Amino acid sequence: MGTRTLLLKMAVCFGCIAGLLLSRKLWLSSRSYPLVPVFEKLPAIPSRVDYLVFAALLVLLALIAFSSRPSKFIVAFLVLAIYLCLLDQSRLQPWFYQYSVLLAVCAFYSRSNSAPYQTQLLNAAGLLVALVYVWSGIQKLGVGFIDRVFPALVNPYLNTFFGRTTILPRPLIAALPLIEVLIGIGLMSRRFRSLSVAMAVLLHLFVLFLLVPFNVNSIVWPWNVAMIALVVVLFWRRQDASMSDLLVPRQFGFQLVVLILFGVLPLLSLFNLWDSYLSSSLYSGDFQVAVIRFNDKVKERLPAAIQNYVEGVNGEWSINPVGWSVRELNVPPYPEPRVFKKIAGSICAYAEDPSAVRLTIYSKPHRLTGARTAATYSCAEL
User: Fold this and answer.
1) pTM for the whole structure
2) Cβ-based neighbours of 190, under 8 Å, separated by 6 or more
3) What is the pLDDT, as a whole number, of residue 80?
4) Most buried by CB count within 10 Å: which residue of 96, 164, 178, 248?
5) Taking the CB of residue 184, how many other CB atoms lie within 10 A of it?
6) Does one domain contain both 297 and 317?
7) Buried b or exposed e, range 211-224, using 16+ CB within 10 angstroms
8) Considering only 8-22, 86-100, 141-155, 174-188, which range has the smallest mean pLDDT?
9) DSSP per residue over 291-343, as a string?
């Protein structure tokens, strides 16, 4: 493997190890937040055995990072990762999805150390990273990010330095997603590649500056560091790949798979035909949310571990999947209706009356007005 390929592999592995360690309970079954399997009849991993499986993920990543022939370790990791995600869709976090596909790229093109294979590896990985910027910017082009997500990130600083919340101009906030799109496009072009690398590094440093001091969403800290490393490794002073080399695969291979997964399918997410978290939508504000409401009788029957996440007073109780997931697992919930329904179904198990639990799912916000539509379900409808 060449130097760039080795550094790419190590950045992915160490970034993934850090993400796994920061979200330990996500990968275990001994937790109150319910598992949401893709197929109900899949055999679950017994409690305590899941600790061994979690350790196996970490060991495999370490072996991949330091092995000169990592393909067999990558295959073992991917098989284990896929099975764990089938057992719980919440594990398919954007960063884990990205790391896993990058490792698949490394495995596919590690069959040979020849220069053409190494170039194809770097092209496929570079295309993936560039498309993440493009779609991450596109997903943020709406009032969800402009009026809610970004102000929530900067307001703690505005309050600290100015003693009150200062409303930033909306055009200034709207420019940030456009910059992200331009970074992705610029990385694919020879002419603007160096400038785009510098802008990408500054962007991630800015994000870390917003998140770290106030201990916000620590799960994405290592991802931002890993993205800095990936951008530098894949694009800095690299002039052998043109935009057409990245976007138009010369032959059928994993580069075409990457183009479909990270370039084409995210378009479907705009029409709710592809999952938001598989479309670089984290921090966009453009995804569905939900709340689970129930009465006193249901609350009294809930286990103590779940009671910690109940909110409300005077017989009107609720659980917000976002708060529940973030507080227990240190990751946001997988924002799809099928997942919310399974989570609500786990609360329904404690209800004698099917109408005692109600799940309300709010649609993605309208990109121009921010308005959401709502649909409410009882236990009988889940």
Assistant:
1) 0.95
2) 239, 241, 242, 243
3) 97
4) 96
5) 21
6) yes
7) beeeeebebbbbbb
8) 141-155
9) EEEE-HHHHHHS-HHHHTT-EEETTEEEE-HHHHHHHHHSS-----HHHHHHH
Residue 68, domain member (yes or no): no
Q: Quick check: 280 and 136 in contact, CB under 8 A?
A: yes
User: Taking a C-beta distance cutoff of 8 angstroms, is the pair 228, 200 a contact?
Assistant: yes
pLDDT in tens, 106-144: 999 887 777 778 899 999 999 999 999 999 999 999 999
Backbone phi and psi for residue 319, each to the nearest 5 degrees, phi listed first: -130, 130
Same domain, 130 and 260: yes
Both 304 and 250 in one domain: the answer is: no
Q: Please compute the mean of the pLDDT values over residues 289-299 and round it to a whole number.
A: 95
Residue 164 confidence (pLDDT): 65
Give domain status of residue 13, yes or no: no
Number of other CB atoms surrounding residue 45 within 10 Å: 19
Q: Are residues 167 and 267 in the same domain?
A: yes
In a domain, 110, yes or no: no
Spatial separation of the C-alpha atoms in residues 300 and 249, rounded to whole Å? 59
Q: What residue type is 123 in one-letter code?
A: N
Residues 6+ apart with CB under 8 A from 195: 186
Cα–Cα distance measured from residue 79 to residue 321, given in angstroms and rounded to the nearest whole number:
28
CB 77 within 8 A of CB 60: yes
Q: Hey, what amino acid is at 128?
A: L
The reply to whether 104 falls in a domain is no
> CA-based Rg of the chain, rounded to a whole angstrom?
22
Number of alpha helices (DSSP H) and beta strands (DSSP E) in the chain? 17, 5
* DSSP helix/strand/coil, 281: coil
Whether residue 147 is found in the same domain as residue 274: yes
